[in-house]
Design brief:
CATH topology: Globin-like
Number of domains: 1
Distance between the termini: 19 Å
Number of strands: 0
Shape: globular
Radius of gyration: 14 Å
Number of helices: 7
């Protein structure tokens, strides 16, 4: 069974704002982004509607760590952090997910940002980054 890993592939567009003004900095930097990715991953893996694409992560601690590192590195870079992202063009995809599955994982990102008490402006920016991934993630 092929495993999905098609969520975080998109062209990185980073604004010209200073590093101190970046979304990455306003989210709280490396520690906060890693905590956000961990919380989001836990929610996604626990969701029966999308679990089939992520079950390999739930079964293998090494795979989960690698997945979370790739996602965190990608989000760091995409939000203006000074991280280097060396992962694949598709951070988390071996096959595409459905539009409904993308909506579910996006919902988990909203829940994660709410859980972490991210301010509305930063939440909106992060969701724009996330929504930008839909084209690469959803099968056509």
């Amino acid at each position: 069974m092929k495993t999905l890993l098609a969520v975080f592939a998109a062209t990185l567009t980073i604004g010209t704002a200073s590093a101190a003004d970046s979304l990455y900095a306003r989210l709280g930097g490396e520690k906060a982004v890693h905590a956000m990715v961990n919380e989001w991953t836990n929610r996604v893996v626990a969701d029966a509607d999308v679990h089939k694409w992520y079950e390999h992560i739930a079964k293998d601690a090494h795979a989960e760590q690698a997945f979370e590192k790739n996602v965190a590195d990608y989000l760091c870079k995409a939000t203006g952090g000074a991280c280097a992202y060396h992962g694949p063009a598709t951070v988390v995809a071996e096959e595409h997910i459905t539009a409904a599955a993308f909506a579910d994982i996006e919902k988990h990102m909203v829940e994660t940002l709410d859980h972490m008490k991210v301010h509305d402006a930063e939440k909106h920016e992060m969701l724009k980054v996330f929504e930008g991934l839909k084209g690469a993630a959803v099968g056509h």
